[in-house]
Amino acid sequence: MHFSICLCALFVAIVNQVSGMDTVIGLYGETVEVPCNNGAPKPKDLFMTKWKYDNGDLLTQLKDQEASVIATDKYKDRVSMAENSSLLIAAATLKDEKTFTCMVVAGTDISEYPVKLLIHKAPTGVEITALAAELKIGKPTQVAFDL
Ligand SMILES: *[C@@H]1O[C@H](CO)[C@@H](O)[C@H](O)[C@H]1NC(C)=O
Fold first, then answer.
1. What is the assigned CATH class of domain 23-124?
2. Which of 27, 47, 66, 75 has the fewest CB atoms in 10 Å of its CB?
């Protein structure tokens, strides 16, 4: 009896942790933006912002300085940091579907904000326009063939 209650509590704790993580969807082939702490304003006493992932650090930025790239792997030439601390990853592919963590050092506080990145392939604008036009004219049987 006690055992099952314990297991249940553990399960809830794990679920909370996962669902508490932000998820961002980027478009395949585009530059994707991964916001730090949901795009919240930078803390006043900000000292350092760092982006990292499970293979190591990507880039860091000291207060009032340009961000510097630390990655030496395939991310070396693809990452940059926006003024608002967002991580920018150029030419996104499905291999970029991972968790990136923004670390913010402000005063004596260190906060970490993990963000899960998902990459979607965008439908082309042409398809959407064609579908919308067909639906307006009211010829639903043609839609499937025209696409
Ligand atoms: C952060 O800055 C980038 C580049 O200027 C912009 O595209 C983006 O919308 C901004 N994101 C947030 C969360 O404010």
1. mainly beta
2. 66
